[in-house]
């Protein structure tokens, strides 16, 4: 295993070398990096190459192709800008802000609904609630129980007076054959 | 050559920008007209096709009008426009890659390759030998930059072609300055090792 890289001080200055070549090294680091270059020949050679590369890139970037922008380009973007302005002026101001749409609108509606429910529960704590018979005063309880008994009795009577469909349609059951008045011997008995 | 940003005085520039951010189309048009020409040239340099460059430049200016409210002045207006242009170009190349290529467009043989190269040479005055050499160097450098991974290419283009400072690059790309430094370092290291351009700074070719 090559362990030289562990002790290679130049590794610490790798990024600084590139930044120096690109003209983007902070002033604070400049002194330290230049002090290293004074001692390190390989870093000096590397930075010299990178400076040439950076200069070539800058020059290539400055030499843009000598082409004129076509007239249609201006027509295109200007038409789009004017159209968007017309659209903006013609659209009435929306009731809701532009960010309150879709999922946000759904969640905020749900939240508002819950807030209303909580508000009414808190603001009307004495609202009538269903009570059980056990907590009523004894006299009232008796009256209610009597009413309930009367109602059950009335239901039973009503059921008895109205024959069911099955009872109506079912024929009367015949007595056994031996007890019938005109019953003769059966075919088997005669035989 | 004066940059478009320098055409207006400090006060005039701020005033125009403020009006544009408030939605004044006339102010935006004044700004955009000043940058239109350079933006188109940058688009041609990127995609090397005037028709595509026109589309990209128009899309960039329309998008900048829609999002001018988000421009906070922390970088130059031209840098901001260039970052939008790079983004549009990136989308364009992705779309091209995902589209199936018809067999008829594939280069076949040396003759087709030479014809493709000739198409890329702009129709202009006959160039001198120096100018030709320079044009060739530029083309090789641009090819090398194009061969970089996207995240490295963006940083190189903004730093060297647009001459933006590192904090400005960090702002327009939404990165930290440390990330920009690291990407710039890796990009330069990769470019330095590219054999196609190594003789630009090392004529003997020894690395």
Describe this structure in words.
The complex is a heterodimer of chains A (191) and B (207). Chain A has 191 residues and is mainly alpha-helical. Helix content of chain A is 61%, strand content 0%. In chain A, helix 1 runs parallel beside helix 3. The mean pLDDT of chain A is 79. Chain B has helices spanning 10-21, 25-47, 50-66, 77-98, 109-120, 129-146, 150-161, 166-173, 177-193. Chain B is built from nine helices and no strands. Chain B has two domains: 7-85, RNA polymerase sigma factor, region 2, helix turn helix motif (Rna Polymerase Sigma Factor, Chain: A, Orthogonal Bundle); 131-199, Arc Repressor Mutant, subunit A (Orthogonal Bundle). Chain B is 68% helix and 0% strand. Chain B starts with 9 loop residues before the first helix and ends in a 14-residue tail after the last helix. The chains are: A mainly alpha (191), B mainly alpha (207). At the A-B interface, helix 1, helix 3 and helix 4 of A face helix 2, helix 3, helix 6, helix 7 and helix 9 of B.
The Cα radius of gyration of chain B reads: 19 Å
**Average pLDDT level of chain B:** 81
Please, how many helices of chain A?
Answer: 8
Poorly predicted ranges of chain B: none
Beta fraction of chain A: under 5%
Order of helices and strands of chain B: HHHHHHHHH
Oligomer: heterodimer
């Amino acid at each position: 295993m090559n362990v030289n890289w562990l002790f290679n001080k130049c590794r610490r200055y790798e990024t600084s070398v590139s930044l120096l070549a690109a003209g983007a090294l902070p002033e604070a680091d400049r002194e330290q990096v230049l002090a290293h270059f004074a001692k390190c020949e390989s870093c000096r050679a590397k930075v010299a190459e990178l400076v040439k590369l950076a200069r070539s890139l800058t020059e290539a970037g400055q030499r843009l192709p000598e082409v004129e922008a076509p007239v249609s380009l201006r027509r295109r973007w200007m038409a789009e800008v004017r159209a968007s302005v017309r659209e903006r002026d013609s659209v009435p101001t929306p009731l809701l802000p532009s960010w309150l749409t879709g999922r946000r609108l759904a969640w905020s509606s749900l939240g508002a609904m819950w807030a209303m429910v909580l508000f009414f529960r808190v603001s009307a704590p004495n609202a009538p609630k269903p009570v059980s018979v056990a907590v009523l005063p004894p006299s009232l309880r008796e009256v209610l129980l009597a009413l309930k008994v009367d109602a059950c009795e009335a239901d039973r009577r009503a059921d008895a007076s109205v024959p069911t469909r099955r009872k109506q349609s079912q024929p009367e059951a015949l007595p056994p054959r031996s007890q019938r008045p005109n019953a003769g011997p059966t075919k088997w008995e005669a035989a | 050559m004066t940059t478009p940003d320098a055409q207006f005085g400090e006060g005039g520039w701020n005033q125009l920008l403020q009006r544009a951010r408030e939605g004044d189309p006339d102010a935006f048009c004044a700004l955009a007209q000043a940058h239109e020409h350079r933006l188109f040239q940058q688009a041609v340099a990127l995609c090397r096709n005037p028709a595509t460059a026109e589309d990209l430049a128009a899309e960039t200016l329309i998008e900048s009008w829609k999002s001018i409210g988000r421009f906070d002045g922390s970088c130059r207006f031209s840098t901001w426009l260039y970052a939008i242009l790079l983004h549009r170009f990136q989308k364009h190349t992705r779309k091209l890659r995902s589209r199936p290529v018809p067999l008829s467009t594939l280069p076949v043989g040396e003759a087709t390759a030479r014809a493709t190269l000739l198409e890329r040479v702009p129709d202009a005055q006959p160039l001198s030998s120096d100018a030709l050499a320079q044009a060739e160097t530029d083309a090789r450098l641009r090819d090398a930059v194009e061969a970089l991974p996207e995240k490295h290419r963006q940083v190189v283009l903004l730093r060297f072609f647009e001459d933006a400072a590192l904090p400005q690059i960090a702002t327009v790309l939404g990165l930290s300055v440390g990330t920009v430094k690291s990407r710039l370092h890796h990009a330069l290291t990769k470019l330095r090792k590219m054999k196609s351009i190594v003789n630009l700074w090392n004529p003997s070719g020894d690395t």
